[in-house]
Design goal:
The chain is α/β, with parallel strands linked by helices. The protein contains 11 helices and 10 strands. β1, α3 and β2 form a beta-alpha-beta unit. The structure holds NADP nicotinamide-adenine-dinucleotide phosphate. NADP nicotinamide-adenine-dinucleotide phosphate binds next to α11.
């Protein structure tokens, strides 16, 4: 089903984009970087050949370039021993010339918890070490995972008061659903997490003022699943028919929403910007 002129006009007023906000954040980072005594340095660890990961890494490297930040990519083949990655992390933890360590997910055939546990919390650009996640749980936001910060920023930009709002998150991962629920609970939203074992997802999403979806399944969320006037944030990212797309069946959903994030151009660019901002935060934690 295509869009007519009215649809396109309506879409412009409903568009909750992330690109402009991302540019603003990167602009602030760039200004800050020139005032620092050292050039901040990000180490990126990538294991395997996951195609979406390659795109995300390229976006992060471009953002480093734009803001005057140094980055080094450490690439491992799939099948590399976990101990090799752990050894590298140990060296990077001890290297005062490295300010942030980013392990690109997914990490095939390795124990993710063990890998994140080995990263120094002050170099934890992704905010996924037990210490940083624990602090988030306690309401102490030292380093917030970038996708979570991106979604929180998009919601902040709408000026909608989250107090008492029904928010449904379709994702319960350590990267998105769990930490995001902590941040939104702190803002007094009523949060429900859905996942593959949830009996009737539409029952929950139809009640929601805000739906945040991150399943990675194209066309997962359709119009009949959401309440009229709700806000929809699509953090999913997958390749479908040779294009990057999110979870939302856009044509059916946007007609019912008051605001909706596009994919690409929504959560993605803001996540990259917050990753870079988190590196500056790490730099500051190490120079206190
Ligand atoms: N835009 C960005 O910047 C950004 C950043 C990071 C990740 N992402 C994207 O976000 C998505 C999720 O990433 P992740 O690391 O959290 O992945 P993940 O660990 O695989 O989590 C996916 C979540 O979605 C749920 N899910 C999957 N299929 C479902 C279905 N049919 N019905 C209900 N729930 C379903 C899973 O439920 P179970 O727990 O029951 O399996 C799980 O909780 C991916 O598409 C990823 O590419 C985007």
């Amino acid at each position: 089903m295509g869009m007519n002129k009215t649809d396109v006009a309506m879409l412009k007023t409903k568009n909750l984009g992330g690109t402009k906000l991302a540019d603003e954040i990167l602009g602030e980072v760039k200004k800050k970087v020139v005032t620092l005594t050292e050039v901040p340095h990000l180490a990126i660890i990538f294991v395997g050949e996951n195609e979406p990961s390659k795109i995300f890494i390229r976006m992060k490297q471009n953002a480093c370039k734009k803001t005057g930040i140094k980055n080094t990519l450490f690439k491992f083949n799939e099948g590399t021993k976990e101990s090799e990655v752990l050894d590298l992390i140990k060296k990077l933890n001890e290297d005062a010339g490295v300010h942030g360590i980013l392990v690109q997910l997914p990490i095939p055939n390795m124990d993710e918890n063990k890998i994140f546990n080995s990263i120094s919390p002050v170099k934890d650009v992704d905010g996924l070490t037990p210490k940083n996640i624990g602090n988030l749980l306690l309401g102490n936001e030292i380093i917030v995972p970038a996708t979570v910060a991106a979604i929180a920023e998009l919601l902040r930009s709408t000026n909608v008061d989250l107090k008492g709002k029904e928010v449904v998150i379709i994702n319960r991962s350590n990267l998105i659903g769990k930490p995001l629920s902590m941040v939104l609970i702190k803002k007094s939203a009523t949060v429900t997490l859905c996942h593959t074992k949830t009996k009737d997802i539409a029952k929950h999403t139809k009640q929601a003022d805000i739906v945040i979806t991150a399943t990675g399944k194209p066309n997962f969320l359709v119009g009949r699943m959401i309440k009229k006037g709700s806000i929809v944030i699509d953090a999913g990212s997958a390749r479908y028919k040779d294009k990057t797309c999110g979870d939302v069946n856009f044509n059916s959903v946007y007609k019912r929403t008051s605001l909706i994030t596009p994919v690409p151009g929504g959560v993605g660019p803001l996540t990259v910007a917050f990753t870079i901002k988190n590196l500056l935060r790490c730099y500051e934690l190490q120079h206190r």
